[in-house]
């Protein structure tokens, strides 16, 4: 019993070694070894492994098949009937035979609650069209992830899997729907003209929706059925704005159950004034007793008003904020985040200076940070409107204020030193200009602050000596031999 | 309120009730024997040295929130947060730690059991089967034919 308990802390390949110790250990570790089985291109060629899996398939709870040569699922045998999680990534040709094996496997395992599948056109047709829809067989299914590797050539036709999802949506708790490698939409059509949504009972169980689809109509259709989302993640491709989705989501919350409010919002590649307005509206209506915990906006630009709204309604609850898209937020906004969000644990953003004369550190140091529990901090420095032409003048301006900079640097490192739970610190730069002293360079006096961070495990900085001299590095490594210093690839920086 | 505990070698320890109740076994015993609290609770499988150490652990963790034991199997794969005190606590020799695991198991002190098992897992996962047998004084009871049959399990390690 104890040996089994110990096994819970051991990884798969180590379990296999431990199972060879003696019979009683074998008995204790074998069920754990086969609990999660993953076949990839390498392992599925190993016949011995298949035979072994067959012998122990009653222990299997999750099965992942990620392979070109599809293994014969029938080999798993009738004892493989306790699966709860199935992941399928067929990379090449899949035939009718394999699909019937899969159907048989699903019939044997009514307890499957999680399905992840990468589809191509052929699989879509064989597994999801009309009466053949395998989701109908899966009454326990709660979490569904579909990566759709094709796009119907005829845009008036829906893909089989999308129809299948619409049919089973009411039983789901979480849904991921991505169309990867999609062909571009010929011309953006007006959304209203082609939107003909069949009215359905609301999917009240579905609380997590993650969608990446070039065709916004499918996103709108899914969203219109989900009044109770806690998590919403969307990635918008450049041809459409995506603000319609945010607007619809806001409407859902205005009329929906007040118990359900968004906690996790991730947007990618959303830009433009309409997006900013929709985001502003959403941030206002989804404020409630709970409030947002995660705000993640990558390659998205909203406005300064958005940040103000975010902080007005969600400052007390925010734990994760990722905003990587200069010139947003401004250094002043960053300062607000650090001084208004007491629960902030993960902050990742650009920092830059609007005026070269006034280093952004000024803004950050204006008042004390209250996020004492910060664990992850990524700051990426860059110059605004960077161009080689301003290089010379900037160097000149900065070199005139070395004293001010030095004092700000010491303040910065003191603040960092006070973040006792910090585990990850990345100080990157996207700047092509190697201006030194950079606002963040590390001098011997800062080492004490760094060494005091007992939980710091990941420390990433630019590779240049001006950032941290060899002597400083040596001293740091002497005092914190366990701390790995990673350097950003310079070539990548300059690319 | 105080409770007295007696180790297998007859040593008596007096601790606060709430500290002793981190042990599921003692908690249950206290419920059953509510009237009879003058006698020390005998712990037949736990020696004085280990008991002192278990009590030290329980004293430190007396205010921890209780962990839901019905949690999903896989949540154990996630690293448990060990604070600096726990790290210091596990700096003992292997024999002592294994005795502690047995003590924690017989007294059902769940967080200490998890801590100990994690410690043990860290040790065995770096070892070969032969080294593990030596450490735990286990005999290799596989017949040569059985050895052959489990030979494929070596392949897992290469995946």
Automatic annotation (TrEMBL), chain A:
Domain of life: Eukaryota
Domain F-box: 2-37
A Pfam match: F-box-like
UniProt-listed Gene3D superfamilies: Ribonuclease Inhibitor
Database matches in InterPro entries: F-box_dom, LRR_dom_sf
Descriptive protein name: F-box domain-containing protein
Source species taxonomy: Eukaryota, Fungi, Fungi incertae sedis, Mucoromycota, Mortierellomycotina
TrEMBL record, chain B:
Gene3D superfamilies hit by this protein: Potassium Channel Kv1.1, Chain A (3.30.710.10)
SMART domains xrefs: Skp1
Organism domain of life: Eukaryota
Coiled-coil boundaries: none
BP terms from Gene Ontology: ubiquitin-dependent protein catabolic process
Summary of subunit composition and partner proteins: Component of the SCF (SKP1-CUL1-F-box protein) E3 ubiquitin ligase complexes.
Name of the molecule in the record: E3 ubiquitin ligase complex SCF subunit
């Amino acid at each position: 019993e104890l040996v089994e308990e110990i096994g819970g802390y051991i990884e798969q390949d180590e379990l296999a070694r431990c199972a060879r110790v003696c019979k009683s250990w074998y008995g204790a570790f074998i069920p754990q070894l086969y609990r999660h089985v993953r076949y990839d291109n390498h392992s599925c060629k190993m016949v011995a492994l298949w035979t072994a899996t067959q012998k122990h398939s009653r222990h299997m709870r999750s099965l992942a098949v990620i392979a070109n040569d599809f293994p014969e699922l029938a080999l798993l045998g009738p004892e493989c009937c306790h699966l709860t999680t199935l992941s399928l990534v067929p990379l090449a040709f899949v035939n009718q035979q394999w699909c019937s094996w899969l159907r048989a496997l699903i019939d044997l395992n009514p307890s499957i609650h999680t399905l992840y599948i990468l589809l191509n056109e052929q699989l879509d047709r064989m597994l999801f069209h009309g009466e053949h829809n395998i989701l109908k067989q899966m009454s326990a299914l709660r979490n569904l992830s579909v990566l759709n590797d094709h796009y119907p050539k005829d845009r008036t036709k829906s893909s089989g899997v999308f129809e299948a999802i619409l049919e089973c949506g009411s039983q789901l708790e979480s849904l991921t729907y991505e169309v990867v490698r999609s062909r571009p939409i010929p011309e953006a059509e007006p959304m209203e003209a082609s939107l003909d949504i069949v009215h359905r009972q609301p999917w009240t169980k579905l609380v997590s929706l993650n969608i990446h689809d070039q065709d916004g109509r499918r996103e709108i259709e899914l969203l219109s059925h989900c009044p109770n989302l806690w998590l919403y993640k969307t990635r918008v491709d450049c041809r459409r704005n995506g603000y319609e989705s945010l607007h619809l989501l806001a409407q859902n919350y205005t009329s929906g159950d007040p118990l359900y409010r968004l906690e996790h919002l991730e947007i990618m590649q959303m830009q433009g004034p309409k997006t900013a307005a929709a985001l502003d509206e959403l941030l206002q209506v989804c404020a409630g007793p709970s409030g947002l915990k995660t705000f993640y906006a990558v390659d998205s630009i909203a406005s300064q008003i958005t940040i103000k709204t975010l902080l007005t309604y969600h400052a007390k609850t925010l734990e994760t904020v990722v905003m990587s898209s200069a010139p947003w937020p401004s250094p002043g906004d960053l300062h607000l985040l650090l001084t208004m969000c007491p629960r902030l644990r993960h902050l990742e953003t650009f920092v830059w200076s609007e005026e070269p004369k006034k280093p952004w550190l000024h803004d950050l140091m204006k008042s004390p940070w209250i996020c004492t529990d910060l664990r992850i901090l990524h700051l990426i420095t860059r110059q605004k409107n960077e161009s080689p032409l301003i290089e010379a003048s900037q160097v000149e301006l900065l070199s005139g204020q070395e004293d001010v900079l030095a004092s700000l640097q010491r303040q910065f490192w003191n603040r960092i030193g006070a973040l006792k739970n910090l585990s990850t610190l990345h100080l990157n730069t996207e700047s092509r200009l190697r201006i030194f002293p950079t606002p963040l360079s590390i001098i011997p006096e800062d080492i004490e602050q760094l060494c005091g961070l007992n939980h710091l495990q990941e420390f990433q900085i630019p590779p240049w000596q001006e950032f941290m001299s060899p002597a400083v590095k040596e001293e740091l490594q002497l005092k914190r031999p366990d701390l790995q210093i990673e350097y950003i690839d310079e070539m990548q920086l300059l690319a | 309120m105080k409770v007295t505990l007696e180790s297998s070698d007859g040593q008596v320890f007096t601790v606060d009730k709430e500290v002793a109740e981190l042990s599921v076994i003692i908690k249950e015993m206290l419920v059953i024997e509510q009237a009879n609290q003058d006698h020390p609770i005998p712990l037949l499988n736990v020696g004085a040295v280990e008991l002192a150490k278990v009590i030290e652990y329980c004293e430190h963790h007396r205010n921890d929130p209780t962990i839901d034991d019905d949690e999903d199997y896989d949540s154990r794969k996630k690293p448990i947060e060990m604070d600096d005190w726990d790290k210091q606590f596990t700096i003992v020799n292997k024999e002592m730690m294994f005795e502690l695991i047995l003590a924690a198991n017989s007294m059902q002190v769940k967080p200490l059991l998890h801590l100990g098992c994690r410690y043990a897992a860290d040790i065995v996962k770096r070892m070969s089967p032969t080294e593990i047998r030596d450490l735990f004084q286990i005999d290799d009871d596989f017949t040569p034919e059985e050895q052959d049959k489990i030979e494929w399990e070596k392949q897992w390690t290469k995946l």
